[in-house]
Design goal:
Blueprint: E1 3-6, H1 12-23, E2 27-32, E3 45-48, H2 54-64, E4 69-72, E5 78-79, H3 87-115, E6 118-123, H4 136-156, E7 161-168, E8 171-172, H5 175-178, E9 180-181, H6 190-197, E10 205-206, H7 207-218, E11 226-229, H8 231-242, H9 250-258
């Protein structure tokens, strides 16, 4: 059984992953910015960690002991056109979703390298592979995360450390509802907001489904670098690989087709 540190364990995918891994007999090190939110999470350790704060990350890693697997899950999203999303929001998402993931990864790598074993799993998204209007600030952070993961796999794979990215589509968590929404009154963009509102929410998978995929990845010897999670993600990314296009609405069309 593995000793697994999960970032963003207080809710959503992180919480579900902690529950799934504990049920399978793994030792969970649950982390969150506010450790009191972890009281009901099954874990051998519950630690404060803010992935945007180097001192917080260093302190948590020092207390965690051996870490066999890192599940890098902490993140957030924002909605708005490229024109109207404030630059500070791009910076905030990049610092949390990308640099935050990298900060924790750098903290756990030395011990993994010394042991010659370990596993790093990044919770990414299909939006790390394609772009959808109005979610560009989130996508830029995930595209960058995908590049980091791919480079890392080439660097540490020969050292015995596996790197994986899991790419779900829509997940039924509180994240989208909590997203900052920079909707403007510009008529030119009205159709894009309408399209976004028509996305088939019934195709969203549960956080538990993502958690099972994460657990399966941990229990798979030498898992692939990239794995879509759920039928929607599989169909969209398969369509993208077979027939890439410059049309910004192709991904939305694929989502609707998958619902038929």
């Amino acid at each position: 059984m593995a000793r697994v540190l999960i970032t963003g364990s207080s809710q959503g995918i992180g919480r579900s992953t902690a529950i799934e891994l504990a049920a399978r007999g793994h030792d969970v090190i649950a982390t969150a910015r506010r450790p009191e939110t972890l009281a009901e999470v099954p874990a051998v350790e519950r630690l404060a960690m803010d992935v945007t704060d180097q001192m917080s990350v260093d302190a948590a890693i020092a207390r965690a002991g051996q870490i066999d697997v890192l599940v890098s899950n902490a993140g957030a999203t924002v909605r708005g056109t490229i024109e109207h999303t404030p630059l500070r929001e791009f910076e905030r998402l990049y610092e949390l979703n990308t640099i935050g993931a990298l900060r924790v990864t750098q903290a756990v790598l030395p011990a993994m390298r010394e042991r010659g074993s370990g596993q790093i799993i990044f919770v990414s998204s299909i939006l790390g592979r394609l772009a959808i209007p109005l979610i560009g600030s989130y996508a830029q952070s995930k595209w960058a995360l995908e590049a980091i993961a791919e480079t890392l796999s080439l660097e540490v794979g020969p050292l015995g450390i596996d790197v994986s990215t899991l790419e779900p589509a829509m997940v039924a968590t509180s994240g989208p509802a909590a997203a900052s929404n920079h909707k403007d009154e510009t008529a030119d963009y009205a159709r894009l907001w309408e399209q976004l509102g028509q996305m088939p929410s019934g195709l969203a998978i549960t956080a538990d489904e993502v958690a099972r995929a994460i657990a399966d990845t941990i229990e798979t010897e030498h898992p692939p670098l990239r794995s879509p999670v759920g039928g929607l993600a599989e169909s969209v990314l398969d369509a993208l690989d077979r027939a890439p296009s410059d049309s910004p609405f192709d991904a939305l069309a694929a989502m609707r087709s998958a619902n038929r």
